[in-house]
Design goal:
Blueprint lengths: L6 H23 E5 L13 E6 L31 E5 L7 E8 L4 E5 L2 E4 L2 E2 L1 E5 L6 E2 L2 E2 L2 E7 L5 E7 L10 E2 L4 E5 L18 E2 L3 E11 L13 H4 L11
Antiparallel strand pairs: 1-2, 2-16, 3-4, 3-16, 4-14, 5-6, 5-13, 6-7, 8-11, 9-10, 11-12, 14-15
């Protein structure tokens, strides 16, 4: 069969256009992310795949693949709400993606006193609830208490704390202008804004997007994706299309 002389050039053009469209969607609309750590349990589990909306807080250079220096500051900025689950680039290298919950807004004062979280000198209310699933820190099952916490804006979510509360007390964290303070929901197993040398306060330009919902989830402890005979056990069907609170 004789191929049209334009066959290869047309296919290359099609692939090129498809790549451009994919980059535009990833940069301006939505981007998939994979959860590799247990720092956001029980909200997010290792193996969750989720969609993050890139337009939620406007755009910066970190909205684009490889963070090219095409924007000097964030444009079309919309302030995030306290309690949002957000993907951001860590200030330490401006390259690594982290996902945490927004707790502190610019000007806020955050402190842990006797393992209780205080925001602007008021304790964040939390009520103990039954723990029905295992909670991990890395590959280790940890002994925790589970709570429902309520932020001043009414946002409610679940957190877990080790029963011996390893993070008891802290200095006062005062959030600078144009910066945010993040915590993991797995409070004693999260590297977050409490650790100033590695994460610390996150500038608004480092925000990547808002986590919206889980589109797929699998437990790698049971089996890898290629082990299709284990799918009925490894795929977490109940988490599919769950909205992230």
């Amino acid at each position: 069969m004789k191929l049209d002389k334009n066959f290869f050039s047309e296919n290359i053009k099609t692939l090129f256009y498809a790549l451009i469209i994919a980059v535009i969607i990833r940069s301006l609309l939505v981007q998939p992310f994979y959860i590799p750590s247990s720092s956001m349990e029980p909200t997010l589990l290792v193996g969750d795949r989720l969609f993050v909306t890139k337009y939620s807080y406007g755009y910066s250079k970190h909205s684009f693949p490889f963070s090219p220096p095409i924007l000097s500051k964030r444009i079309m900025f919309k302030s995030p709400e306290r309690g949002d689950v957000i993907v951001f680039k860590t200030p330490a290298d401006n390259r690594t993606d982290y996902i945490k919950r927004l707790i502190g807004l610019p000007g806020d004062k955050i402190q842990f006193i006797d393992a209780n979280l205080y925001l602007n000198s008021s304790e964040i209310l939390k009520s103990k609830i039954p723990l029905k699933t295992k909670i991990y820190c890395g590959d280790t099952t940890i002994d925790v208490l589970k709570f429902e916490e309520k932020l001043p804006n009414g946002k409610k979510f679940h957190t877990v704390y080790l029963k011996n509360y390893t993070y008891q007390n802290s200095d006062v964290f005062t959030v600078p202008d144009d910066h945010y303070f993040f915590l993991g929901d797995n409070r004693d197993c999260s590297k977050d804004s409490r650790f100033l040398s590695s994460v610390g306060y996150v500038h608004k330009d480092n925000l990547v997007g808002k986590a919206q919902f889980i589109f797929f989830s699998s437990d790698k402890k049971i089996g890898s994706f290629i082990e299709f005979w284990k799918w009925h056990k490894s795929i977490r069907f109940k988490r599919t299309f769950n909205v992230i609170n």
